[in-house]
Amino acid sequence: MPRLLPALLALLCFGPPTPAPSAALTEAASEPEEPWCPYKVRPEGSAGGRLCFRRPALGFQCSARSCRAHRSPGGALVANVLLNGSVLLQWATPRPGNGLRGFTLNCSWDGTYTRFPCDSVELGAACRDYLLPEAHGTVRYQLCLQPRYNAPRPAPPAHCVEFRVEPAAMRDIVVAMTAVGGSICVMLVFICLLVAYITENLMSPAAPRRA
């Protein structure tokens, strides 16, 4: 008992030992979080705009069934036109440590006789994509991404991409045709299997009986 008395006194004074952090918590703390994308939408003819934040769409890949990709000359800017009418813009990551301040996204669309500007967007240096929530159908858009650098470095040429969004009725027709085409393929496979079964079991000649 005298030997256990110092250990009991130390436990009462200092409390139980602190458990070691688990490996999952250590890995989660060591992994860097993807920075938020600050942006400001400037309506046409306005100098102001509200500052907003969004998370980047990491790992997004344009699927042929639900998306159509349009690339700028050189492929630095990609416009992914989705079936719901929204457009996800993606661009290449600039080299780090080059004085990049951010990006300016200019938008315009073709009218009957002239080109009309639409809302411009100022994006932070951490932004790598931007989502246009809704684009008008049957209208040809031109989006230009202009990097902004600290002085005295001049701004490089802008990357521009042009695309046209299918109207909502056309998108519904495409979705309906895709669904009907899939059903027809399943029916054709079933019919082929049924014909093969009938040919193999019902229409084949019976083997002659031996006396």
Characterise this structure.
The protein has helices spanning 5-14, 23-30, 168-201, and strands at 37-42, 51-54, 67-71, 77-82, 87-91, 100-110, 115-117, 120-124, 129-132, 140-149, 159-164. The chain is elongated. 25% of the residues lie in helices and 31% in strands. A hairpin with a 5-residue loop joins strand 3 and strand 4 (77-82). The chain has three helices and eleven strands; from the N terminus they run H-H-E-E-E-E-E-E-E-E-E-E-E-H. The strands form two sheets. Strands 1, 2, 6, 7, 8, 10 and 11 form a seven-stranded antiparallel sheet that branches. It has 211 residues and is α+β, with helices and mostly antiparallel strands.
Give me a quick take on this structure:
This protein is α+β, with helices and mostly antiparallel strands. It contains 3 helices and 11 strands, in the order ααβββββββββββα.
